[in-house]
Amino acid sequence: MNAAAPRKYRTSEKRKATKEQNRAAIEAAAWEVFCTIGLDAANVRDIVNRSGVSAGTFYNYFRTKEAIFEVLSQQVLERIRKETRGARAKATNLDEFLALAYQSYFEVLQSIDGALPFIDRNQHHIRFEMYPSAAVSGLAEDLERELRQFLPAGAMSRPERLLAASIIIAAG
């Protein structure tokens, strides 16, 4: 018996828009849940109920609540990395560099609705999952490279600058 090949569907604009809407609804609902009750207390049903999509639709996009938590966390980190880079670029000395780095970091966090409760309710997950992430290591690389501009030649080795960058991130 010949098995029929799986049917392939053309991607329509409507289907694409629906997928984008579903994903956005799931992400917005998950953000609210994680800001309100945190990852530990949350379950997929909480996210599904707030999103208005079915559980099956949720699982088409994310395998677990931790998977969407990671996506949302990375989005916040990438925004922080991008927006703080612009502020740090204005620095003309090390003191100004550090001041602008922290000031812009706090301004970005305050501009993201729910970011402070998100961080507060999920601190241990943020430390565990976000610090080893590519976004944080990218931010550390950015900081290390920028620190080099303000330090006398040979004042710190690259590993020492990376450690200083990690301390800046941890303090933030």
Task: Describe the protein.
The chain is mostly helical and 172 residues long. It has helices at residues 13-36, 38-41, 44-51, 55-61, 65-88, 94-111, 115-121, 123-130, 134-150, 158-171. α1 (13-36) packs across α5 and α1 crosses α7. The termini are far apart.
Produce the secondary structure layout.
Blueprint: H1 13-36, H2 38-41, H3 44-51, H4 55-61, H5 65-88, H6 94-111, H7 115-121, H8 123-130, H9 134-150, H10 158-171
Helix pairs in contact: 1-3, 1-5, 1-7, 5-6, 5-9, 9-10
List keywords for this structure.
172 residues; mainly alpha; 10 helices
Quick structural overview:
By secondary structure, the chain is mostly helical. Helices cover 76% and strands 0% of the residues.
H-E order:
HHHHHHHHHH
Q: What's the overall geometry?
A: elongated
Radius of gyration: 21 Å
Mean pLDDT: 89
Helix content: over 70%
